[in-house]
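Before going further, learn to read the protein records used in this course. The integers have meaning only within a learned vocabulary of local backbone shapes. The record below shows the convention in full.
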Amino acid sequence: MSQELFTAYSKFSEAILEVNAYVADIFANHEELKAYSPQQLQTLRIIKKNPAISQSEIADIQGVFKTAISNRIKKLEQDGLIAILTNQDLRKKAISITQKGTELLVISETVIFENLNELLAERFTGDEIIKFTSQLDEIVKCLKMKKDGDKQ
């Protein structure tokens, strides 16, 4: 790997950290969102995208131990953002988002996206942002293919 490419990956890694910190700051300063961590809202987003998902599946997607997910799930359930349903043999619990959870996600996405748009619109055109996110989609595809290949 060339030094230039190494530097590019390093900058990419730093950018991910900065974006995460920026989003966390937005949440911390928003009245309705400050009660939740970015990880809890990410968990809620995963549950919305994957109805009837299990805690183990969420842990796998987030790359964390099931104990970390248990704490997140407990908070989300206590606040009425998710519902946990037990199947007939009582071995699997399926987690689904509630209407209240969906409404909170709409608020969080609106707040984040409006802040990002305000921040980025001064330096990038809409087309540039769309092209960049298309490139991010390709990175995500590569990561998913790698992960799926590792499972086989």
About this structure: The helical segments are 3-28, 38-49, 55-62, 66-78, 99-120, 126-151. The chain has six helices and two strands. The CA atoms of residues 10 and 85 lie 43 Å apart. The longest helix spans residues 3-28.
